[in-house]
Amino acid sequence: DKLPYRVSLELNEKDPRVLYAGGKKEIWKTIDKGATWKRLDQEINFPFLQWDAIAVVPGEASEPPGRHDHLYVATEAGILFSHDGGDTWARSGPADLVFTAIAAHRPAGARDDVVYAGTFLDGLYASRDSGNTWKKLPADFQDTVSTKIFLHPRNPEVVFVCNATEAHLGRIRATPGLYLTVDGGETWRELTPLNLPYSTLYSVAVHPERPNVVYVASPGGILRLALPEGFYDVITGP
Fold first, then answer.
1. Contacts of 67 (CB under 8 A, 6+ apart)
2. pLDDT over 70 at 175, yes or no
3. CB neighbours of 154 closer than 8 A, spacing ≥ 6?
4. Mind listing the domains of the chain with CATH numbers?
5. What tens digit of pLDDT does each residue of 121-156 get?
6. Which residues contact residue 165 at a Cβ distance below 8 angstroms, ignoring those fewer than 6 apart?
7. What is the pTM of this model?
8. Cis peptide leading into 238, omega within 30 of 0?
């Protein structure tokens, strides 16, 4: 079988054998670095979903690999989540919203996952109980489309959100940009320069040796941005 068109990929960071691929109507899993794949969505009662983005919180080591992974998927009909590596699924979050981006992690010493989910023109939501309940976060980018949510690798409490506008639909009601929070989404700071010439920002990455430098992908190329003074201390800690 072929993998779905427009694939969204997510790796189990603790076990590189395990990879998840989502796309139009389908989500797949490999536990042998891509040699073989298993489809995970055939028992789901929502068969026409676009699996736009996947977040993985790795579980404990298991056989078969990835059996205890927690998965969170942004779809056009809410959030789907699985706490058994994709064997069973439940739906969560506002079902009437189109979710377009997602990221998750488990804080050190915690039992529950923290999940951030971005939408099509309705801002950002967060769950602090492994996807069971959700809260809409205050943000200045409510009328944009979230294209990527990225947790800083040195401190996952530092969250970046890439946004886009729907220029081709004539719905430019806000400015696209890269936003940063260090307090769980209660306050935000825009990092992109004024008069950004692009209507879409696709993704963000952090310099491997300079955690205060980030790179952002756009239709016109790669933007290099420096985090504001003071945020470097938040990222690295004492």
1. 59, 84, 85, 87
2. no
3. 206, 211, 235, 236
4. 8-195 (2.130.10.10)
5. 888 999 999 999 999 999 877 778 888 999 988 888
6. 143, 144, 145, 171, 172, 173, 174, 175, 176, 199, 200
7. 0.88
8. no
